[in-house]
Write a structure and sequence with these properties.
Shape: elongated
Number of strands: 0
Strand content: under 5%
Largest sheet: none
Helix content: 55-70%
Number of helices: 12
Structural class: mainly alpha
Radius of gyration: 23 Å
Order of helices and strands: HHHHHHHHHHHH
C-alpha cells in the first residue's frame, strides 16, 4: 500500500485510538468510513496497536455476521491475513453473487475473482456430498438406526421418503449458493414445520429432535469439506 498523508479527521481518529479508555472510546468499524487511510497512517507512524485494534474490529463475530464482505475488503486491504481468511469464510453465508458494498472498491478484480472462486468451490465441494451419503449411515451405524430419515418406515414409506428427498434436494441446492450451517438450519426448520403440518403419525412426533441431530451432523460435514478449500489470494 502507498503511504498517505492523513487529514485532520484521520489524525483525530488516530488520537481517539490512543486516548486512555477513560477519556474516549475506541471508534468502531462503522465510524471508520476512511479506515484505509487510518490503517495507512498507522503504518506510517508505526502505531502497531491501532492495526491490532482494526484487526480485532474486522474479526468481531457480530461485525462479521452483519458485514462479512466489508470486513473481508478492509482486512485484505490492510494485509491482515488471518482476519481476511476468517472474513472470507463468513462470506459463505451470503449469496455467491454479492450486492454492491462501499468497500468493494478496495478490492482489485483479481481479489474479487479469488473470493468468488473460493465461494463457488466451497459450494461445489459441499454439493458433491450428495453423490455419496455414506457419511450419514456411518454416523448412525445403519439405515435401521435412521429409518425415519431414509424413509423406510413400513406403511409410511412413500410419504416419509418424499419429504426426506424434498429436504435433501432443496438443502443441497441452497448450499451451493450459501455453503454454511445457517442454510442447513433454515431448510431443516422449514421441513419440520411442513412435516408437522401433514400430521404424519410416524414422523411428526420425532421430526424436531431427529432433524436437530441430523442438522448438527450435516453442519459438521459441511464445515469439514469447506475447511479443505483454499482461498487463493495474494497478500
Amino acid at each position: 500500500m502507498c503511504a498517505a498523508n492523513p487529514g485532520q479527521q484521520d489524525l483525530e481518529t488516530l488520537l481517539c485510538f490512543c486516548y486512555p479508555c477513560t477519556l474516549a472510546e475506541d471508534p468502531n468499524l462503522e465510524q471508520l468510513k476512511d479506515v484505509t487511510d487510518v490503517l495507512e497512517a498507522a503504518k506510517k507512524y508505526s502505531i502497531d496497536a491501532i492495526e491490532r485494534k482494526v484487526a480485532q474490529a474486522v474479526s468481531n463475530p457480530k461485525m462479521l455476521e452483519v458485514d462479512p464482505l466489508r470486513c473481508f475488503a478492509i482486512a485484505h486491504y490492510g494485509q491482515l491475513r488471518d482476519e481476511t481468511l476468517l472474513a472470507a469464510k463468513y462470506t459463505l453465508r451470503q449469496p455467491l453473487i454479492p450486492s454492491w458494498f462501499e468497500e468493494i472498491e478496495l478490492l482489485s478484480a483479481a481479489d474479487l475473482l479469488a473470493l468468488l472462486t473460493y465461494h463457488q468451490r466451497c459450494g461445489n465441494a459441499v454439493y458433491a456430498l450428495k453423490t455419496n451419503m455414506s457419511w450419514i449411515t456411518t454416523h448412525y451405524g445403519s439405515e435401521a438406526a435412521c429409518s425415519w430419515l431414509s424413509g423406510r418406515m413400513a406403511d409410511h414409506y412413500r410419504s416419509t421418503l418424499q419429504w426426506w428427498n424434498d429436504f435433501m434436494e432443496k438443502t443441497f441446492l441452497a448450499l451451493r449458493d450459501r455453503p454454511c450451517e445457517a442454510t442447513i438450519l433454515a431448510c431443516a426448520e422449514e421441513t419440520v414445520q411442513n412435516v408437522r403440518a401433514r400430521n404424519c403419525v410416524a414422523c411428526a412426533p420425532h421430526i424436531a429432535e431427529g432433524m436437530r441431530d441430523f442438522s448438527a451432523l450435516f453442519a459438521r460435514k459441511v464445515e469439514e469439506v469447506v475447511s479443505q478449500v483454499e482461498l487463493e489470494l495474494l497478500f
